[in-house]
Specification:
The complex is a heterodimer of chains A (140) and B (928). With 140 residues, chain A is an alpha+beta fold. Chain A has four helices and eight strands. Chain B has 928 residues and is an all-alpha fold. In chain B, helix 20 runs antiparallel to helix 21 and helix 34 (745-772) packs across helix 39 (855-863). The chains are: A alpha+beta (140), B mainly alpha (928).
Chain lengths: 140, 928
Amino acid sequence: MIERNIVEKVIALEGVELLSGLTPDQLSRIALIAREVNYPPGKLILRPHVPLDALYVILDGSVEIARNGEVLHVARQSEVLGSWALFDDSPLPVTAKTVDDTALLKISRDDFYDLLSDHMELAAAIFSTLVRRFRKLIEQ
Amino acid sequence: MGLLRRWWRRTFDVRQGEVARTLFMSLYFFLILCAVHILKPIAWSLFLHRFSIDELARLYILIAFVGGLLAYVYSRLAVKVSLWAAVAGSTLVMVTVLFALWRAVSSGVAWLFYFFAVWVNLFGIVFVSQGWLFAANIFDGREAKRLYGLLGLGAILGGMAGGAITAAEAVSSGSVGLMPAGIALVMLAFVSLTVAGFVSPRHQRAAVPRIPESSHTDEEAPAGSGRTFQFRDVIGAVARHRHLLLIVGIILSTYVVEVLVEFQFNVAAKHAFSNQDELTAFLGRFNGLFLGVTTFLLQVFFTTAAVSRLGVGRTLMVSPLAVGVTAAFGIALPGITGPAATRLVEASTRYSISRTALELLYLPLPTQLKNRTKAFIDVFVDRLGRGLASLLILLLVVFGVEGSWRLSLLIVVFAGCWFALALRARGEYIATVRNRVEARRLDLENARITVHDSDTIRLLEEVAGRESERQALYALSLLGDTPGYDIVPLVEKLASSPSQVIRAKLYELARKARHPGLRERALADIEGSPTLHPDLAREAVAYLLEVSGDPLRLAARLMDHPDCFVGRAVLEALASKPEALETLVSRDWLLSAAASENPERRMLAAFAAGVRGEAGTGVLARLLRDPDARVVAAACRAAGRLGEERYLPEVVSHLLDTRARHDVIEALGAYGDRAAGYLGSLLADPGAEPALRRRIPRVLATIVSQSSVDALRRVLGDADLSVRAAALRALGALREAAPRLDFGGEELRRRIREEAQSYFELYAALALFRQSRPGGRAAGLLARTLDDRLEQTIERLFRLLGLRYAPGQIRAAYLAVRQRRRSEEFSAALELLDNILDHELREILVPMLDGSPHLLDIGREKFGVELPSLDEALEHQLRGGDPWLTACAVAAAGELRLLRLREAVSRLAASGDEIIAPVAQAAAAQLR
């Protein structure tokens, strides 16, 4: 399957809340390190107690998220799996398994950190989004 | 027609959301001035008919006295209510009194004529002043600058209409019979003002405040303060603010000149026309026709343009200059010509240019201060000026020296004072605007603490013993810097601190105090642990070598310590002793350490080579290619310390390694000017690795020299926007570090124009997208990218401006422009730029930043930028050198099925560019 081009990746990344403070130009830099991965149905993406090393954005297909066998949510296009994985490698107590043929955009933490070290403005924009999120939580 | 429309749009730039406010405020001034010009002639004709002309000077003095009293009473009452309520209250009182006068004046009681004349004079001033104060609260500074001309125009037309009505109806209706018309106009004016407040945007409506009570601070009245208005507070505020003091001075000199000119004109007219009817006809023609039309023309064609081109300060100088010159030339002119010309120039420029500029002069003041003092200044100082001039005239009459040329001379002198004050006000206006813009910047130097008293010392000693490492270190630093304080007892007391960092600080203090008491403890610290905190290693070693009897022997012993930081500390401590270093670090030692399997040992070898030289071993060449990033970083630092140019390419290449980058930048900084040439050629080479080019400016920013500046200037037009932005950031840092370096005056102006042109091109493309709303995700992404590029262009423009003008002011202005929501600061920032930029740049940049609705016209006029078609806009981006923008444009062309661009898209699809080609291939498939 042909990998999506940079414009399509940026359009997909625009739906990620963590990256909502970034300009299209900045998202294009993240798109350059984002790799498209395609999985058949039934493929385990997240396992309980296994540390995360990447963030996934669903491009096509759907992913079932369950805890102790109970399905909590079925994530679909533009939803994100492991949104905190870029900052925290603690494992999540859930499994995430593809329901059908699924295309995901994978951003590995190491690549992401390399990118941030080169582009401080990206780090600043992401911090700004995080601060807004914390402020919102506090106000709630 | 198009020319007229363009002139109107430029002269009276009323924007969306401002029309209703402007219309009703102009209507207010029209109605009020119409009423004034009906009621004033009635009052004056009644007075002059009843009393002789000698009473006129006494009446002026009375008006001045009552004016001061009224200002006091008005200010006391107005602080208790909102501005709108103050206007409503004064309208009610004025209308009631006028109504009573209308009923009573026919009785012929003498004091009523005095009262009517005084009342009508003050009535005009109070209502005009209130109107401007209200306007200052519903228009921000930028709006005011564009729209006050229209408000002034309303006032002039009102005056002309009032004069015409009086001239036409006075005979048929009788003077007193016109009074109800004046009263009705006052009531209508109040309605108009209320509507103007109502149609103002919510945030500005909310800003129409109470006229605040005087308070202890300059800027804000304390909320809920029950303190009553104090006359001395206003006087105090005026005395404290040079800006206000200058306004007072200008108003005072304006009205002194006005009364002198008016008196000279009346005397000349009386001499010129012996027949009463001819005199009346002349005065009617002069005031109604000549003066009205001249003022109208000045207001329409000159005032707004003058304020916009000359700025507030220079506009203030126009009137005194014109009056002074006319009065001086008038001396040579026969009969009434000179005094009439002076009167025409004085009154027409005062009602138009001076009035508008003076109102704008208030704007940079804090709103609370302005509201607290303006009405008082306008009413009181106006009267005071007229009173002083009246006294002067009385003296002239008493001494029989009221001849025309002497009066002309006096007018020239006072116009000179007025001009000098206006000149001073210009500088003060810019300073006030600058202060308002810069007020947000935190002055960190104020946070510095100095220790003087014993209480503070006791407190710091206590803090130094606490568990908090950070606080203890800070307290120890302050105590260590305190002159005359003996730190040794405290050092001894804290020497057993469990914190390695605090112990490091204690060794540093002990070394500076040359106190040997901690020797055993320091040795135990070093030899008792295989790994140490770098600070502890450095300070303990430095301390031991300082207090040791045989430092070389001790140094040799410490060099074998397993922690390389100890060896490094030894080398640092001995850096100023080359002989000791050569004994300690032999050629064999260097070769052996560089070949060690232990990377820490290799790091030490690199460090040693940097401190004492390579001794012909060439170890740095090997260490610069070491697989361990820490060793590479140490080798880079060593190469920088030695300034070895042969290692420069190798060192620069490590800029791409994020783990070593910090050390590499410092190493290249240590090379200094020797590296600037090589770095500059690499930076200017478009074929060099883009990531490397982007990092070079940061290095050049640390090399403070003209070579760095020149290298950075060469890439200010680079196609890679991140290189351009990085170069500008670096130049900004260099300007702050060395403002005397040559940053290229004319070249900067050209760059600013280029960036501005680029802004207008992007703006035109974005305007097209906003107008045509083509739809589609790629087109939306392209529009957002264009928007983002506009922001980036503005940032680059400000950075360029920061190289040409005062960087602090430009930075503060940029922050204010970026956060447009804070409208007062935004206005102040634009006002600052309006005053400091060159004329050419101001004409381009200020409307651009102000979000003028005529940007497309400006772009067309200044740079020939036309609004493109969709095809043209995308084609332009396809040809551009901005890869991301090109990628977006390609995707949008495919999405929108723009077949005309098929060929260009196919070319890009075959280009092999790793970013653009895949996007172009997908777009080409859509266009097939």
